[in-house]
Write a structure and sequence with these properties.
- The chain has 355 residues and is an all-alpha fold.
- It has a domain of 210 residues: Up-down Bundle (Substrate Binding Domain Of Dnak, Chain:A, Domain 2), CATH 1.20.1270.60.
- The chain is built from seven helices and no strands.
- The longest helix has 69 residues.
- The termini are far apart.
- The N terminus and C terminus are likely disordered.
Length: 355
Amino acid sequence: MDDIPVTNGIMDDDRFEQDLKEILKDTPSLNDYSSTVQGGMIRNDPVTPKPQAMIRPDSQNRPISGTVLPQQIPPATSNISLSSPEKMTPSIQNQTGPSSGLIISSQSKIDNIRAWSINTYKCTRQMISERLGKGTKTVDVELESQIEILRDTQRKYLNILRLARALTSHFYHVVQTQRQLGDSFADLSQKSPELQEEFSYNAETQRTLCKNGEALLNALNFFTSSVNTLVNKTMEDTLTTVKAYETARIEYDAYRTDLDYLKLAPKDASINGYLDAASCKFDEHKNKYERLKADVSIKLKFLDENRVTVTTKQLYLLHQAFSAYITGSHTEMEAMLEKFNIQPKYPIDQVDMTQ
């Protein structure tokens, strides 16, 4: 068997590569078509398809199987049926994956907005009818009186807190002035030999008053902090539950009114369906109303006990602090601070005035 010349093989390969390059020059770039498909739009490509490369659709205006023209690719048609124009809608029932979860989430939000709108309308209608004297209102006389007493008590305690803060602020400046006056007396006692004794006595007096005043300021600061916690945290927490209870009461009366109206309407198939739905809603809001009513009663009871305990302790502290300050006994002031576990804050500039 004769050997094939190597030189002829090399020449054939070179000729094949040249022919392949000439063929590729006449074909459009693959990058242009890939960018067209990914972007969902047709680019103005410099390469124009040759007429013989175009395939006409058949007599029924459908592309021949296996052929898709670039101009026939609409953007984002993965979930759209192309069989007929009237069926070009998202196929929600058959969707799976992230897109179906997004549609379900959107539908859930729409349902929540619809339920909120209906509930707001019913409650607003109930409130207006009550103010006009046309609607019935559920009233617990004992509980309502306790809530009103709590609100009045909070207003009075807020007034005490405001006055205590003002007293603390004014007394803070008094003690600062006493300390500065004592320093001035001490300085003059060194520079005025003829009045050294008199200035020394007054300097010592002001220093004693300043020292007792700092202890009183600590007691006042502790008092305002405790009253602030009682009024703006403990009482406010109970009043937040009261507001939720009042909202639940309005919802309960609104759905009760709807149920009473449907019970009086003529009975038919549609009314029976509405009646069952209204009865379920009424039971739901009735349970919520009764639960919050019980929560308010319990919180009012514990709040009253806590208020009495805290107020008793704080009033006793205030009385002891002022009594020790008036008598000028620094020993009593120190004993009072230790009894109530109040940490002294010296110098006076460290006293917290923001409570």
